[in-house]
Please model this.
Amino acid sequence: MSAATLEKSDDKTREVAQTRALIDEVLEVYPEKAGKKRAKHLNVYEEGKPDCGVKSNIKSLPGVMTIRGCAYAGSKGVVWGPIKDMVHVSHGPVGCGQYSWATRRNYYNGTTGVDAFGAMQITSDFQEKDIVFGGDKKLDKLVDEITQVFPLAKGISIQSECPIGLIGDDIEAVSKKKSKEIGLPMVPVRCEGFRGVSQSLGHHIANDAIRDWVFDKADYEQPFESTPYDVVLMADYNIGGDAWSSRILLEEMGLRVIGQGTGDATLKEIEMMPRAKLLLLHCYRSMNYIARHVEEKYGVPWFEYNLFGPTKIAESLRGIAAFFDDTIKEKAEQVIAKYTALSQAVIDKYKPRLAGKKVMLYVGGLRPRHVVGAYEDLGMEVVGTGYEFGHGDDYQRTTHYVKDGTLIYDDVSSFELEKFAEKIRPDLMASGVKEKYIFQKMGIPFRQMHSWDYSGPYHGFDGFAIFARDMDMAINSPVWGMTKAPWKK
Amino acid sequence: MPQSAEKVLDHAGLFKEPEYQEIFERKKDFEGGCGAARVQEIADWTKTAEYREINFKREALVINPAKACQPLGAVLCASGFEGTLPYVHGSQGCVAYFRSHFNRHFKEPCSAVSDSMTEDAAVFGGLNNMVDGLANAHALYKPKMIAVSTTCMAEVIGDDLDAFIKTAKQKGSIPEDFRVPFAHTPSFVGSHVTGYDNMLKGFLTSFWDGRTRAEVSTPTININGGFDGYCVANNRELKRMMKEMEVEATIISDPSEVFDTPTDGEFRMYAGGTTAAQMEAALNAKGTVFMQGISAAKSAEYVEKAGQKRVSLNCPVGVTGTDAFLMAVSELTGQPIPASLELERGRLVDAIADSQAHLHGKRFALFGDPDMLLGLTAFLLELGAEPVHILCTNATKEWTEKINKLLAASPFGKDAKAWPGKDLWHMRSLLATEPVDFLIGSSHGKYLERDIGTPLIRIGFPIFDRHHHHRFPIWGYQGGLNVLVKILDKIFDTLDAQTEGTASFDLVR
Model:
């Protein structure tokens, strides 16, 4: 080993030791029992290990200010809510539906309140008497009223809030009865917020509801004119139009997208999953369950892809094409070639402004790993990452993306994330709205990576240009030069 | 290819490009929709009188309500006390929602913790969560007080906060003398303003119960703003006016600092707020003014029982509202209303006189919280404008009586109707069948503006899609001026837009 290499590896060792010391420092503040538990969720990634060395998908500690949400958020907010031609009833008290009303930016085309019901808050608004006497009768009546005021609705889902499971309501029985009466699919979803440890169980429950109340009730005997190139684009929630800037590439490479979901999806498109030749899975965490089911029951394979940044996009388009014949493979190459000039122009413009900048990520589903490549395409480095509600398989997959020495934090508390950022001083923090203003006060540039900070799309080649522009705007805004009064310098 | 590095198009422009429009067309083949003609037919029908009748028959289904749930209000109230950590006992998702709701409105951090109850707590109760939660929150966030409220989960299973907090103290989670004001805040009763009231009462009882009142001789009063999306600016305006009057006023629950901290390199989890010492002294004040009386009914009752005079106003906006507020303070304290405030009053009247011709007879629909609707309606009436549809999802009986009385007292209120307990889908029918010139309400009104075409003036909570409105007061004569300008700006913008292709595009108005 040369002296230079040795020195470099010494630097690395020192850096890792510093990061470990930082973790210890943060843990010291906890009461003993809590500190021991949290220690299992924080680590430094070591190259060559099969996972990130953290425990995950475990209950959040009481009182620590977890950033996580609940099962209702995972079902209504993520999986079911975006299906646009169904009415999704937030069943229970008024709050859950109110706070999640149109805040996730699941874009859709349609006439809201007429043939699309996305940006709406539809609720049974439980009162004390509903808690005492049960809400099934109210639900029964509510379904009739939906058919009267929304005659073009294609189905109804019942998104359970906490009280439903506690007061013993039988929403399944009501759904079966009413579905027959009104002649529309009804989907009861047991996504009460107290179930599980995060949004994640809500995704799973929502997936199971698709299996039990959509696929098992749909008529797949009906003829369908299929082609060898039929795919369903799934687990893309079309935030700021992500699914659309993905779909354009799939169509350009000769695939026929027979269903898209759940962003900008109709119920009919969801029913298409078993008809596809290949399921294209964007957010593994939130819809792998139904993908596995469709594979097992209907023999349709699934493929997990990543359309963030030109490197991963090219890799993914080739990966998708590998399932098809040479025509598609050739077209995939043509698509990659077609967009190379755009991506290069974006990189040429923004990389000089962003190269070497350090990023800390803390997001949900797939983004703590999937966006790493897009940052790297711009010459940036991800120095810390973690999942709000990831599982072991997410942390395994993360190893393909992160570098040796990356700080890993699972279900990070507000306290931990602030302490980490104070010490690491990243050039960009990329997380959610609850974190945004905290880090900006600290003088750390920030982008929301759930809602794309009201921008987007970020998927696909078209999205990469927006992603690069936005990261540049955040990091190179003149505002960060004004945080200290000049007379204090 | 529509995208380029030189001119990056985001969603607002990108999807209008032909490449994407073609995708949308092709996608329709798989959507199973009913076709544009049928959609238009139904869209038109939803704006008819026939639809309105069906819509108003709804008994179980609630669509786009203008209210949130109790613990949201509890979190806002608790945020207004010095060094206080809002703590919500129950499911954790609720707290994520409360925090993001305030983040989106104030564009500021919002700190609150949950004790993350799950299935086992549903079966055995949430005592263990409280014991661990208080210990962790206390160790990590070093608060001076922790203010506990509840989610509906904890309420349905019947957890007893008083007993749980006592047990947690016995188990050493927090010191015995550590103050933990608390309130049960079931989300299936009332709304966010009820939760605010319950939490406020929790603070008052925590500080005042068991103590004897000794009224001070100085001109000292308390003021509470209630659930107020403009608390940052309104509370500062209240303090300024009280200084002008030489009145010593304690704002009980004052989040004006914590929701307006500087960007200077330091994150302040706690900032400002009513101190414990102020709260103790507040018992001896001459009285308490509730700026939003309907929304603070229980607290007001408690204050009266404690031996204080209480004044319950209804979100005073404009000239007569501010007059009433200042006169009430003057009566409580014996302090005269100074010339400086009279001058401000005169300036607001001057502004109204300058603009009255553009306001007179304009027809308005309004939605929002009960007290704010009373305040805004009173202001519209004094401008010579005509409130027409006044819709309050979280109305109380008191509200309905008061608003009807207010309307009956003015010739400009003769066409108005109050709609207690209705939602914004009802409002859609009202606007479609009985059109008005302008709509006043929160950001949620933007869908009505898009659907019906009624221009929206954003006053209320939450304001998500416009920035920094909460930094400008709506109370006091200065606040009245702000509201006046908000209304006028929309009136003039709308007029200018309507003059497209005509000669009426006047430079001077």
User: Anything to note?
Assistant: The radius of gyration of chain B is 25 Å.
